[in-house]
Amino acid sequence: MLELRPSCEHCNKDLPPDSDQAMICSFECTFCLDCVVQVLQHACPNCGGSFSHRPIRPAFDGKNENDLQHYPASTARKYRPVDTQAHAAWLAARNKNQEA
């Protein structure tokens, strides 16, 4: 079951379950769209992978009980601001290696 985390790991912006601004990597690291584009340049600082929009779980689906009522979003915040200088250096090195 996908963990719907409540906030951006970098800026701590609220990302409610129905947010279209929530982005996740394959390890469910969660960031807001602004941070993914402007700060992280589409690369997860934790695993190095790319991001996709986080799916929106229905509030009340009624079908097989696959909704927020039966599978609520997490309330545990993971606020871990990214070291932007280290991330930029990692991106530069990765891009240089890809060009070689």
Task: Describe the secondary structure blueprint for this structure.
Layout: E1 22-24, E2 30-32, H1 33-39, E3 52-53, H2 84-99
Antiparallel strand pairs: 1-2, 1-3
Helix-strand category: alpha+beta
Approximately how much helix is present in the residues?
10-25%
User: How many domains comprise the coordinates?
Assistant: 1
Mean of residue pLDDT values: 95
Question: Could you give a short account of the major beta sheet?
Answer: 3 strands, antiparallel
Describe this structure in words.
The chain has helices spanning 33-39, 84-99, and strands at residues 22-24, 30-32, 52-53. The chain is α+β, with helices and mostly antiparallel strands. The protein starts with 21 loop residues before the first strand and ends with a helix.
Q: Which key terms come to mind for this protein?
A:
three-stranded antiparallel β-sheet
Brief sketch in words of this structure:
The chain is of the alpha+beta class and 100 residues long. The protein has helices spanning 33-39, 84-99; strands at residues 22-24, 30-32, 52-53.
